[in-house]
Design goal:
The complex is a heterodimer of chains A (about 400) and B (about 300). Chain A is of the alpha/beta class. Helices cover about 40% and strands about 20% of the residues of chain A. Chain A contains twelve helices and 17 strands. In chain A, the strands form four sheets. In chain A, strands 8-7-9-10-11-16-17 form a seven-stranded mixed beta sheet, sandwiched between helices. In chain A, strands 2-3-1-4-5-6 form a six-stranded mixed beta sheet. Chain A has a two-stranded antiparallel ribbon with strand order 12-13. In chain A, helix 2 crosses helix 11 and helix 3 packs parallel to helix 4. Chain A starts with a helix and ends in a 19-residue tail after the last strand. Chain B is about 80% helix and about 5% strand. Chain B has twelve helices and two strands. In chain B, strands 1-2 form a two-stranded antiparallel sheet. Chain B is globular. Classes of the chains: A alpha/beta (about 400), B mainly alpha (about 300). At the A-B interface, strand 8, helix 7 and helix 8 of A face helix 2, helix 5 and helix 11 of B.
């Protein structure tokens, strides 16, 4: 008997606690996210989370989000996907089924986003992601997937255009390409080859680097021999660091070198002088003049990030913050917390943020924002393309090694 | 592909560049392969954690250099630290699997490799790291052949270490004890050799060799916590090609594979570089098997 009373009391207490939680939840919109806090994406996963957190904090400090006359705070439930796509898909399932989350923020990397998108699609849960740019994500007809960043095929188009613009006859230009054999880099490659073709440039090297690469001397010897006017490399952070390092070691002279991920690989900070003149395709830079009411200018965001996390703001964090802003905007416009209504509001997003303009096409990718090209000049990354945002003139051609 | 061959024929100095750079890479792989050959021969363990030991050596060097230690000074320090790490690994894990089935030891070392990867990731982060020695490169033939000095150092060190190892195994007391244990642990034990100690020292020595390889790798290229696997695979391949306990063979196989691999990367394109090496390994295994079976028929 005693036991029974005890358990009944316990049950009542539990019920009370539950209803308490439910009441607290009333004024909070809970977003869910699986990000890579361990595994090979752990640095970028941390940037992603920092970006999400910073935006949530800022929005909550400003009073929260107004939906149909009622004010809500935002909160995020995180899981660690261990940088594994299989785990990411499981966690998406868990967030939706067990935790009852109705809106998801994306993971880090296209691979993880690709694994999670079918799950969110199945349950009709909108996912706004900020770190998966593979064009293949937007060819599957997903209705609940939105991405604030510019797709990968756009990454280095600017470099090809810059090369074409700085030569008297673009048809005489030779291009060498070394891309990692993974979906991201191959997407970048597709965009670059289209553009090279458009300008009538000749592709003289087209190597696919293995994912475990840490030595590209064979490719670079070929570059040395064929003397292209533009060398394009894409292989995430390790590709960027390896390329800059070995180009200097092997004294490969190439008038223009462009790559992805050089800002996140911190080539200017870590490799010093040899990184000068390198062009970097980037989603965002703190020196751009984009602005919004939440964070102010891009540079204000960078300052706030620096103050909060004690490190320079990487674009991975900026785009992650923008994803939260997109959700907040959609909640307000939807006037309802129904996932379907939020999804419809998301598809009509058309906002300006510190990260750049955001407007989705019918596939869910952001078509309003261009990628920028940065150049390492005197140890700093400065915007040199597009011209509208350029802070400094492009330094070209890169002098040969005996003159550097 | 034929265009690329033609390019090399027309520009022999570049062919030299490809071969030289390949051989210098091979030297670093050879260093790690000495260790693997030792551990395989003496403890009868295929050490899957080899690449992670290399990686760890690289990170130790990186950390030391960050704290102001000159790059080349950090190399022996990394070796010493890795010796302790290797010895510790033996005392905690490896000694439990020495007499066990090959499968068990592969599983155990595979497990260790995951643990070390994740620990390194937690401590150092997943960023790509590199150390600048400030030694620069040297040039020959109008700059057509360029070699980073650090790679030359790596090459010399690999040769010297190989020779020292050979001398050590042949003449030093401990070296002889190691060879005796490799030949017949039971007999060695009966004759008064502390085989457990020999195992521990062998594993420590292996880790120290990996430490040297990793230290050179971070100076000549880049490392990150997940770089280990190619080193494990390459060491494995070199040992398979060279045969166990054959120090000279390891050097030759290491340099040869490095050169061939780089050449394949140039001629076939980077995407076939590793496929080429694996195909080569399979062919060598088939050939060795065929030769062995011939010999047997002949003897009987």
């Amino acid at each position: 008997m005693k036991v029974k009373i005890k358990s009944a009391l316990l049950a009542a207490a539990a019920l009370l606690a539950l209803s308490d939680a439910a009441r607290a939840d009333d004024a909070t919109i809970r977003l869910g996210a699986a990000v890579s806090l361990t595994g090979k994406y752990s640095s970028n996963g941390a940037y992603t989370r920092n970006g999400y957190d910073l935006a949530v904090r800022r929005i909550n400090e400003g009073g929260g989000v107004k939906v149909a006359g009622k004010t809500y705070k935002l909160s995020i439930l995180y899981y660690d996907d261990e940088s594994s796509p299989a785990r990411g898909a499981q966690l998406a399932e868990r967030l939706i089924q067990q935790d009852g989350v109705k809106y998801l923020l994306g993971p880090y990397s296209s691979g993880l986003a690709e694994a999670m998108a079918p799950v969110t699609e199945k349950y009709g849960v909108p996912m706004v992601e900020a770190n998966g740019a593979a064009i293949s994500l937007f060819r599957k007809g997903y209705k609940y997937l939105f991405a604030v960043l510019t797709t990968t095929d756009q990454y280095l188009k600017g470099a090809v255009e810059l090369a074409a613009a700085s030569a008297p006859d673009s048809k005489k230009l030779k291009v060498a390409m070394a891309f990692e054999n993974d979906p991201f880099s191959q997407d970048v490659r597709a965009g670059v080859s289209d553009d090279a073709k458009r300008f009538g440039m000749k592709v003289v090297v087209d190597d696919k680097l293995p994912p475990e690469l840490n030595d590209m001397s064979a490719t670079l010897t070929k570059v040395k021999l064929l003397k292209p006017d533009l060398l394009i490399v894409s292989g995430h952070e390790k590709g960027a660091a390896t390329a800059v390092r070995q180009i200097a070691d092997q004294r490969v002279n190439v008038p223009m070198l462009a790559m992805t991920h050089c800002d996140s690989a911190q080539i200017a900070e870590k490799l010093g002088k040899i990184a000068e003149y390198t062009l970097c395709g980037a989603q965002w830079a703190a020196s751009l003049t984009y602005s919004d009411t939440l964070f102010g200018k891009a540079s204000d965001y960078a300052a706030l990030y620096q103050k909060t996390y004690n490190e320079a703001a990487p674009y991975q964090a900026a785009e992650s913050s923008a994803a939260v802003q997109v959700f907040a905007d959609a909640f307000a416009r939807a006037g309802s917390l129904d996932p379907k209504a939020v999804r419809d509001a998301l598809s009509k997003t058309d906002i300006k943020t510190f990260y750049g303009p955001i407007k989705f096409d019918e596939t869910g990718k952001n078509v309003a924002k261009p990628t920028v090209i940065l150049q390492v000049q005197d140890g700093k990354y400065v915007v040199v393309y597009p011209e509208k945002w350029a802070e400094a003139k492009l330094r070209t051609p890169t002098p040969t090694w005996d003159k550097r | 592909m034929f265009d690329n061959i033609l390019l090399l024929v027309q520009n022999p100095s570049f062919a030299l560049d490809v071969v030289l750079n390949g051989m210098l890479v091979g030297a670093i792989f050879a260093l790690a392969a000495y260790g693997m050959s030792l551990v395989w021969g003496v403890l009868n363990i295929v050490n899957i954690v080899q690449g992670e030991l290399v990686m760890l050596g690289g990170f130790i060097t990186f950390a030391l250099v960050e704290h102001g230690v000159p790059a080349l000074v950090s190399l022996p320090l990394a070796c010493a630290a890795m010796f302790v790490v290797g010895w510790g690994l033996y005392r905690t894990v490896i000694f439990r699997v020495v007499d066990k089935d090959l499968f068990i030891s592969i599983l155990a070392t595979f497990g260790l490799s995951i643990v070390i990867q994740q620990l390194t990731n937690t401590v150092f982060g997943s960023d790509v790291r590199s150390v600048d020695t400030g030694m620069g490169s040297f040039y020959m033939l109008d700059g057509n052949v360029t070699v980073a000095w650090i790679k030359v150092v790596a090459f010399a060190l690999a040769l010297v270490t190989g020779f020292a190892l050979w001398l050590f195994l042949r003449h030093a007391r401990l070296g002889q004890a190691i060879r005796a244990t490799a030949q017949n642990p039971r007999a060695a034990h009966i004759l008064g050799i502390d085989t457990d100690r020999v195992y521990a020292l062998t594993y420590g020595l292996n880790a120290a060799l990996c430490g040297a390889a990793g230290s050179l790798a971070v100076m000549a290229w880049t490392i990150h916590p997940y770089i280990g696997l190619p080193y494990t695979v390459r060491s494995f391949m070199i040992v398979v090609v060279a045969g166990l306990g054959n120090v000279g063979g390891v050097v030759a196989a290491g340099l040869g594979l490095g050169a061939l691999e780089n050449m394949a990367g140039f001629v076939l394109g980077a995407e076939y570089q590793i496929a080429f090496v694996f195909t080569l390994m399979v062919l060598i295994l088939i050939w060795r098997n065929w030769r062995a079976s011939r010999r047997r028929t002949y003897l009987s």
